[in-house]
Design brief:
Length: about 250
């Protein structure tokens, strides 16, 4: 049963379609999915950068996810901030091909998927129904990630969860977003998933999410050059909050 496998953080749920994530990333994303679904009962999901649909395959099969918006302009190449990478080339994949692959996932309902083949700078967030959970995994540059984060903040209308993939590639963009966004909580999960909570009770009370935390001091040291000191302070505050919540 999908819920049992989701609750167990079974990464085999990602086996149908290739996902550009590490196993630890998959567990972190499953933990967030499970926690949000259990808390809300029904929820809406928005994703920026779907490619072949690997990160959508669990959502299309979960009946509690009532709506999915997939935003991806589907370029043949994108700029990239990875060391030694000026641009990344992508194998061409259309939204139609992605939906066909998702339809083959057991229990999938692709009728709830809306695909938008535009960048977030071309979309008015006010035209979209508010999601509960956003995942940002599009162009990996400082400017694009900050733009996508702001788009998610606007479309969430101040309430919801944003997860970012590949934090280590674009830490400066995410930290800038935290600095300009009041009343937020940010934390890093294994392997490289960063979570920002806007105006909602923290998911860190859920043991599945808490088990994925990356809080040891050594985790933050490599990020100091990008201005991660506020994040380190937040991590210390987060430890105190966790202790208080769990007492």
């Amino acid at each position: 049963m999908l819920r049992d496998r989701l609750n167990a953080l079974d990464i085999g749920l990602f086996d149908r379609i290739e996902s550009q994530t590490w196993d630890a990333d998959k567990r972190s994303l499953l933990a967030l999915h499970a926690a949000i679904a259990d808390r809300l009962g029904e929820f809406a999901y928005l994703e920026i950068g779907s490619y072949k649909g690997g990160s959508l395959q669990v959502f299309v099969a979960d009946e509690r996810c009532r709506r999915i918006v997939s935003i991806d302009p589907r370029p043949e190449w994108t700029p990239d901030d990875r060391p030694g990478e000026a641009v990344l080339a992508y194998e061409r994949s259309s939204a139609r091909e992605m939906l066909a692959a998702l339809a083959a996932v057991p229990g999938a309902d692709v009728s709830k998927v809306e695909t938008i083949e535009l960048g977030t700078e071309q979309i008015d967030p006010a035209t979209l129904e508010r999601p509960d959970f956003c995942f940002v995994d599009g162009e990996h540059t400082h400017g694009a990630v900050l733009r996508d984060a702001r788009f998610c903040r606007d479309v969430l209308r101040g309430h919801g969860v944003i997860a970012f993939h590949d934090f280590s590639i674009v830490p400066g963009a995410i930290l800038d977003f935290l600095r300009e966004t009041p009343a937020t909580l940010g934390y890093l999960l294994r392997h490289d998933v960063f979570v920002v909570e806007l105006g909602v009770p923290t998911l860190l009370t859920d043991p599945r999410v808490r088990a994925q935390l990356r809080l040891p001091a050594w985790t933050w040291r490599p990020l100091n050059r990008t201005g991660a000191l506020p994040l380190l302070v937040e991590a210390r505050r987060l430890r105190k909050r966790l202790r208080a919540l769990l007492q």
